Amino acid sequence: MKKKRFSKINIMFLILDFLALIVIFVAYGPFSFFRDFLVTTAMGSMSHHYFARTIYSDKMIAETLSHNYVAEVDANTDAGDIVFNSDDDGNYESIYEEQILKRDPDNDLYKIVEINENGSKGYMVVIYDPSRISLVNARRLEVGGQKLSVMATENEALIAMNASGLYNIGGNAIRATGTVIKDGKIFSRGGSTGFGGGGLIGFNYDNVLVLTKESAMEAIEHGMRDAVEFGPFLIVNGEASTIVGNGGYGIAPRTAIAQRKDGIVLFLVIDGRQAGYSIGASMNDLITILKRYKAHNAANLDGGGSSVLAVNGKVINKPAGYTYTGERYLVNAWILK
Question: Which sequence spans correspond to the domains of the chain?
Fold first, then answer.
């Protein structure tokens, strides 16, 4: 009886040892895919860096990130490239152009296109009149901000999408990461975005989506109306950023904003972190989708649990964080009224 019990215990430990060896081989072995995926996904979030630091040293994390990053285009938006003309003559060079230009009956303001590819699902909102897009800031930042659906309802928004990143400043109080510009004035200056790329992302008074590395004051002097600071920039003046390795941001729920040369604006939200429904998207995935729809300027906005899209005050995607589903509280949003 004792021998049988001893044998079972030995087998159990042998199994555990074998599993431990597999984990060590996957995490530290010669094939870097898992390590790249875990490190970039964790470090690409705003609050889950510990996932990577639990397994890897800071030196190994830094080395991994040095081989996976977005090399942005070294330029600011040339606003003169945008010539507003979204007329539909019924001739489409591709199914993607038809999805953009062929408007829904009785709706000249926007159109919703479903995105479903490579295990990822989401929505793209096609907005025909960017003059009706603005940034709204959440109330009650001292007690946690507001959900997107609440901001949308309070501001009578037809469409609403998350914008800035956010961080906790103590208790339940939150602030936007980076600078926020509203109505041509600096609304707030938050802490670091936590990301190496990007800059100011917003609309000038000519309703052109501007991506710029300028300071907030310089951007305002050059006509910036509303803007948030985030990134990375994905496409600038029609040129896509270069993705090195896996891009350095892993796979996660994503939010992006873009504008075509004809002035049409695209709001893109991809769900993620939900096995069997949608895994999320990489920066390269965003570029691929947005280039397909002829984005001329495009930038990544806060993703993860913040990625949310509302139509007439109702959330239409499935937002999810690492440990929860549903809306989180935000600091601001892009809206269409």
Answer: 2-69, 71-336
Whether 126 contacts 100, CB under 8 Å: yes
Q: Render the burial of 184-212: b for 16+ CB within 10 Å, e for the rest.
A: eeebbebeebbbebbbbbbbbeebbbbbb
Q: pTM (2 decimals)? A: 0.87
DSSP, collapsed to helix, strand or coil, labels residue 188 as strand
Tokens matching residue 38: 């875990």
From CA 62, how far away is CA 57, in angstroms rounded?
Answer: 9
pLDDT tens profile 190-221: 876 655 679 999 999 999 999 999 999 999 99
Q: Which residue has the tokens 């469409």?
A: 159
Nearest to 68, CA basis, from 284, 226, 297: 284
| Predicted confidence (pLDDT) per residue in 61-78, tens digit | 777 767 788 999 999 999
How far is CA 80 from each of CA 77, 84, 127, 154, 237, rounded to the nearest angstrom?
9, 11, 20, 35, 10
DSSP 253: -
